[in-house]
Every structure is written in C-alpha cells, then in structure tokens.
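Need a sequence for this fold. Nothing fancy.
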C-alpha cells in the first residue's frame, strides 16, 4: 500500500491510518497522516 502523501511504500500494520470516503489509507509517519487529515481531498485522488 502506498502512502498517498509522500508516495512511499508502507506496511498497513504500521498504525498510521486514516479513512476517507470509505477507503483506508496508510502512512509512513504521523506527519504524513496529519497532512492527509488536513487536506484529504488533495491526496486521495487516484
Ligand atoms: Zn509518508
């Protein structure tokens, strides 16, 4: 699974996760998760 913020490949079990529009996103760090949570619409584009 890819970190949508920085593009790094991350493991889902790291614990940094957010849900947006029914999808779960995983992050490499709390920092990336925070960025996503601030502006999910700008990162969640596929
Ligand atoms: Zn990241």
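Here you go.
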């Amino acid at each position: 699974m890819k970190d949508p913020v920085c593009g790094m490949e991350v493991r889902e079990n790291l614990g940094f996760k957010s849900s947006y529009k029914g999808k779960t996103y995983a992050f490499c760090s709390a920092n990336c998760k925070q960025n996503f949570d601030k502006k999910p619409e700008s990162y969640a584009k596929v």
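For context: The beta strands are 17-20, 23-26.
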